[in-house]
Automatic annotation (TrEMBL), chain A:
GO terms for cellular component: plasma membrane. One of its GO terms (molecular function) is nitrate transmembrane transporter activity. The chain crosses the membrane at residues 182-200. This is High-affinity nitrate transporter. PANTHER family: HIGH-AFFINITY NITRATE TRANSPORTER, HIGH-AFFINITY NITRATE TRANSPORTER 3.2. One of its GO terms (biological process) is response to nitrate. It comes from Raphanus sativus (Radish). The gene is LOC108839990. Keywords: Cell membrane, Membrane, Nitrate assimilation, Signal, Transmembrane, Transmembrane helix.
From TrEMBL, chain B:
Coiled coil: none annotated. This is High affinity nitrate transporter 2.5. One of its GO terms (molecular function) is nitrate transmembrane transporter activity. Belongs to the major facilitator superfamily. Nitrate/nitrite porter (TC 2.A.1.8) family. It is found in: Endomembrane system. GO terms for cellular component: endomembrane system; membrane. It is a multi-pass membrane protein. It comes from the Eukaryota. Keywords: Membrane, Nitrate assimilation, Transmembrane, Transmembrane helix. One of its GO terms (biological process) is nitrate assimilation. The keyword Glycoprotein does not apply.
Length: 212, 503
């Protein structure tokens, strides 16, 4: 009866998982219109070897729809994302680039998402402060234009197709705190000292027992 | 001597002191309990059971606390897949050495002090996880925290000292199974603790650090409970009995020698490497396997990973109970046959898991496979208590260490780098399991037989087998009396009258 319960539970889990797969399996990145959005990202500090600090430094992002864009009528929402440059994807399969859009993991960090206003034709800008949970790495910025069915139709990115130009580096926060380090030391010392106290106590009890 | 252990009018024996001991459970000649009452906390037997499984559970939670939080830790510390793989290997390799040492430590100092000492001295590694800042730091804390898995040996040793032959398989199986449960529970506990801390306002990269204090504190307090409420043997603690002359301190060299020269210990070590070793490997890779192969999100993959470990709640105890049931009818031969069959079937299921392409099929096969592989772990420790009495700790330690060696080897050969895809690795691991379970056929006890042979025609008795570990000089000093009592109670391993020629 334990086996039947197990099989039933697993069937339940499987049906839940299957139903959570959307119908978006076939959409490919290569189907999207390249360069439909022109986008640049200027870090608040620039220069040779400058590394931006997460939580502190900003990006100034400027974008507009390119004159060569053909699918502009379908644009409903613009999603701007922070993406990993190839050097930050090495030996890290959880950041891998896939052609299938639902599998692609190279642009996990959301910068901003806003509705597209077709009446504004000029370049628009906004500032973005690097979030405190951005990991250390090398990045570029990509903007997707999304249609009414929440499917990507076009994109633009701050770097070239080979992803070698205009990249910027970010250093993550360490997450460490002095108070945590002190607590670690205190609890560790407590554990070891308690052990020694117990040992000494046992020896003492043994001596008393022997002298009885 | 009154084997009911109810004290009362029983007289004293030549070896024990004048104290009459009352026990809540019925006991045998060595005062080991002959029954197992799960919901009791009676001193000393059931209390020892609950203390030891809980301490082992806490150690397992600490050792495998990092994998469920890896998506956050790897971003904070900028880890690569190689770093993560190395840390996984480090987490199970530390305790290879620790398990061997723990075996000897239990033989010499008693399981209570040995296990609590280990647990308290590895707790700092868990606390210091909050302060790591690089991949090296990550590998180091996982390595040192992993030493605490050696409390497995003290659990088995303690149960083998507290519970008698007919129930030792069950006691060992339930204690170890509920301890191993920690590996599954941690996949649910750590993400929960992390999200609670995050909701209280901590940044992501700080919240996971704070979360590690929880397993650390549990580990520390479980060790305190063992020291304050536990007892090494039914008759008292080692130190009290040493001083009172009831238990003689044995010589380290002799204990180790009798352990490592017993070929059966090596076979159990190898076989355990391919049931428990497989379990540990799966604990480290299965979430990623489902995540990558079937494109599940991390939470779903984590739930599936947890369910593999959670099957330990009944699967490993089931193995121990099955071992005891088989022994009642068929004796030791029953234990060996059931162990070999279940472990081989586990290997077959593992090999097929890698071949299945559908998600539903994979989950079903994985769940059945988890039951078989964990039951084989329980069945292993139905046999181990009988291999040696003098060197029980060393044999338990060797077998336990063999489990971890299996995990290290398997991860190194099949799951490091990109030589084999994960599914191929899983299939090959299954095939290697089947091959490494074959030596079980070679285990032979002259007094009970082996899988393919009956007991020796020379009419070897249990006493002959266990007392062969003591020299005549040692026997003259009455050092062998513990083994003698054990030999008397182990006659139950002959099985029912019709299956053994000597009864």
């Amino acid at each position: 009866m334990a086996i039947t319960k197990l099989l039933f539970a697993s069937l339940l889990i499987c049906s839940m998982i299957q139903s959570s797969h959307g119908a978006t399996k076939e959409r490919l990145f290569t189907d999207l219109e390249k360069g439909a959005l022109e986008i640049t990202a200027t870090p608040s500090r620039t220069g040779q070897g400058v590394v931006l600090a997460a939580g502190v430094d900003k990006l100034s992002i400027t974008w507009k729809v390119s004159s060569t864009a053909t699918k502009e009528a379908e644009f409903k929402i613009i999603k701007v994302k922070l993406c990993y440059a190839p050097v930050s994807q090495v030996d890290r399969p959880w950041r891998k680039t896939h052609n299938e859009l639902f599998k692609d993991k190279s642009c996990p960090h959301k910068i901003s998402s806003f509705p597209y206003d077709p009446t504004v034709k000029t370049a628009q800008s906004f500032d973005y402060t690097l979030e405190r949970d951005i990991p250390t790495g090398t990045y570029y910025v990509r903007a997707y234009a999304v249609d009414a069915q929440d499917h990507e139709v076009a994109f633009g990115q701050t770097t070239n197709e080979a992803k070698t130009a205009d990249l910027f580096s970010v250093q993550a926060i360490s997450g460490r705190h002095k108070s945590l380090d002190i607590a670690s030391v205190c609890f560790s010392v407590f554990s070891v000292v308690a052990l020694l106290v117990f040992f000494v106590n046992e020896k003492r009890k043994a001596k008393i027992e022997q002298s009885k | 001597m009154d084997i009911e252990g109810r004290g009362g009018e029983s007289g004293t024996t030549a070896t024990t002191t004048a104290t009459r001991r009352r026990f809540a459970l019925p006991v045998d000649a060595e005062n080991k309990s002959t029954t197992f009452r799960l919901f009791s906390v009676a001193k000393p037997h059931m209390r020892a059971f609950h203390l030891s499984w809980f301490q082992f559970f806490c150690c397992f939670v600490s050792t495998f606390a990092a994998p469920p939080l890896l998506p956050i830790i790897r971003e904070n510390l900028n880890l690569t897949a190689t770093d993560i793989g190395n840390a996984g290997i480090a987490s199970v390799s530390g305790s290879v050495f620790a398990r061997i040492v723990m075996g000897t430590a239990c033989d010499l100092f008693g399981p209570r002090l040995a296990s609590a000492a280990l647990t308290l001295s590895t707790a700092p590694a868990v606390y210091f996880t909050a302060g790591i800042k690089s991949p090296i730091g990550f590998i180091m804390v996982r390595f040192f925290a992993g030493f605490s898995l050696a409390t497995f040996v003290s659990t088995q040793f303690w149960m083998s000292s507290m519970f008698s032959g007919p129930v030792v398989g069950s006691a060992n199986g339930i204690a170890a199974g509920w301890g191993n449960l920690g590996g599954g529970a941690t996949q649910l506990i750590m993400p929960l603790v992390f999200s609670v801390i995050q909701q209280m306002g901590a940044a992501k990269f700080t919240a996971w650090r704070i979360a590690f204090f929880i397993p650390g504190l549990f580990q520390t307090f479980s060790a305190f409970a063992v020291l304050l409420f536990g007892q090494d043997l039914p008759d008292g603690d080692y130190w009290a009995m040493h001083k009172a002359g009831e238990k003689e301190k044995d010589k380290v060299g002799k204990v180790i020698k009798h352990g490592i020269t017993n070929y059966r210990g090596w076979i159990t070590a190898l076989a355990y490497g391919y049931c428990f070793g497989v379990e540990l490997t799966i604990d480290n890779i299965i979430a990623e396997y489902f995540f990558d192969r079937f494109h599940l999100d991390l939470k779903t993959a984590g739930i599936i990973a947890a369910s593999f470990g959670l099957a330990n709640f009944f699967a490993r105890p089931g193995g121990g109970i099955l071992s005891d049931l088989m022994a009642r009818r068929f004796g030791m031969r029953g234990r060996l046959w059931s162990w070999w069959i279940i472990q081989t079937l586990g290997g077959v299921l593992c090999a097929s898991l890698g071949q299945i392409d559908s998600l539903t099929g994979s989950i079903v096969v994985m769940l059945i496979f988890s039951v078989f592989v964990q039951a084989s772990c329980g069945l292993t420790f139905g046999v181990v208590p009988f291999i040696s009495r003098r060197s029980l700790g060393v044999i338990s330690g060797m077998t336990g260490a063999g489990g971890n060696v299996g995990a290290v080897l398997t991860q190194l050969i099949f799951f490091k780098g990109s030589k084999y895809s994960k599914e191929t690795g899983i299939t090959l691991m299954g095939i290697m399991s089947i091959a490494c379970s074959l030596p079980i056929c070679l285990i032979y006890f002259p007094q009970w037989g082996g899988m393919f042979c009956g007991p020796s025609s020379k009419k070897v008795t249990e006493e002959d087998y266990y007392l062969a570990e003591w020299s005549s000089k040692e026997k003259a000093n009455n050092l062998h009396l513990g083994s003698q009592k054990f030999a008397e109670t182990s006659v139950s391993e002959r099985g029912r009258a019709t299956t053994h020629p000597q009864t």
